[in-house]
Amino acid sequence: MRDGNGNWWRQAVMYQLYPRSFRDGNGDGIGDFAGAIRSLPYLKELGVDGVWLNPIYKSGFVDGGYDVIDYRDVAEQFGTLDDFKALVDAVHEQGMHIIIDIVPNHTSTDHPWFRKALASAPGSPERDLYIFRDGRGEHGELPPTDWLSKMGGPAWQRVPDGQWYLHIYAKEQADLNWNSPIVRREFEDILRFWGDLGVDGFRVDVANGMAKQIDGRDDLDDWTVDDDHCPDGRHPLWDRDEVHEIYRGWRRVFNEYDPPLCAVAEISIVPEHEHRYASKDELGQVFNFDLQKAMWSYREYRDAIDMDLASARRSRSSATWVLSNHDCPRAASRYGLAQVTTSQPFVFAWDWLLRDGTSYPEDIEAGTRRARAAALIELALPGTVYIYQGDELGLREVPDIPWDRLEDPTAFDTVRQQSKKGRDGCRVPLPWDSADMPRPAAWSPRFGEGASFGFSVTDGVRSDGNRQAGRAEPHLPQPLWFADYAIDRQSADRRSMLNLYRDAIRLRSRLFAADRARTEPVDVDWLDIDGSSGRRDGADGQYGGVLAFARQGGDGRMVACVTNFCADSIDLPAGEVLLASGPLDGYGKLPQDTTVWVVLE
């Protein structure tokens, strides 16, 4: 049952749970609702306020569940609707909240609507639910535009009668026509369906899409699918003014519940437009990805924080902070690679992945040290923190999964300059129990088989009272080095990444409890010691600096978060040290790539 606090999400710590890879409760090698229910005490001990589940719907799983066949049913591999309701109830019994993905831009090509569209004539009402168009050329043999999809290859797919349908993503993900009132009414009813089942809100996938202008324009090939940062609303696919009418309708649905349902928009747009999606009349909050995209440098971190706090002030909402998610290489590996300025985020990491992690050295020690420091920065900031599963363990990317064992369509559909290995390296099933140690796999001594580090568990009970590990292989292979990152080992190590997260979340909840009651954006005070060093003494020749801000604690004292991006250790501000991401030097100074929380005198 939902609690009565409609503002719980504004200063929450959320845990992103990728269902296929979190915990497998029936031993088939795929995570499910039973495994998630069994593992909720772990999340309760971690201290998070809620969980966000990636898609749970009936799906072809061409793209990790984002190709939805039925929006009112769950994938059989996860369980049943009753199992999902049990999960919702269990989350609420633990005093936490639950939000789920909603995927409104496209459906699976196996969705009943699309099957009917294929069986119907061009121009029919059934086809009007999607974006079907005639082709170019003498016989319509050329696609309506030259766009390439985000997954690689043409963004249009031809059907037997000669028409083409638009798919911005995989060809199995047909874009819906949001000009249709039928589509709009259907999704409002879908929101009510899940609201009635007890979910607390939604993460809206591709929220800056949906509204499109394909007809009546002769400039479509002047744009590309990747041109999503258009400042004037003229792009035919992205961030169009018409999308806000859709979300105002959704807000009316959210407000039918007491407390109202919450939502957070996944968007990639110019920062000046974020406030419209995050307004109280629309979705209420947006994902700010600037911190996730930042290199490990003072300037990029300071700029990201300034931009996202400014966005929250414009929308009168709360900022969101993300270091990793299911769509990008893990932070611990990104920070362990060379911090090189590139034209687009993660270019260096994607290139490293494409070559199975062999093209550039990964400094594991530096990456871990920086990921620990980044976690304390993120958890000190006001707003909502989203922790991707496994980041609390310091998991690194798994770059060397054999290509014949990958699942992400990006690996198979991208070509030429678009080529990527995909996102499976950050989606490998979590390691829970180092005692359930796999043997080296026959196909690679770097990976395991025959066990799953406690990821797959059955209902059987061992003689020692613990769950009997299942025998199914995880849907993605686990490297043997996962043993060092397993939850059981980290729980027993007071200096582990897991215990750092537990301590920081516990402190955050206690220190800034008063901010939870605020409905206005919470800001930070920048300290005098904050600033660039003016020298290239940061990571890999980046300009160094000291990132230093403070927030008022519940007892009126100021709590500072200080991070050293310089090569030399720096003096700490006067006060009581509460928590540090790593050891201080022998003179009580803050070393490079280390963050500390201090109650100021």
UniProtKB/TrEMBL annotation:
Signal peptide: none
Gene Ontology BP annotations: oligosaccharide catabolic process
UniProt-recorded Gene Ontology molecular function terms: alpha-amylase activity
Classification via Gene3D superfamilies: Glycosidases (3.20.20.80), Oligo-1,6-glucosidase, Domain 2 (3.90.400.10)
Domain of life: Bacteria
Annotated ranges, domain Glycosyl hydrolase family 13 catalytic: 16-427
UniProt cross-references to InterPro entries, sorted A to Z: GH, GH13_cat_dom, O16G_dom_2
Record-linked PANTHER family: ALPHA-AMYLASE FAMILY MEMBER, NEUTRAL AND BASIC AMINO ACID TRANSPORT PROTEIN RBAT
Family stated for the protein in its record: Belongs to the glycosyl hydrolase 13 family.
The protein's name: Alpha-amylase
Organism: Bifidobacterium aerophilum
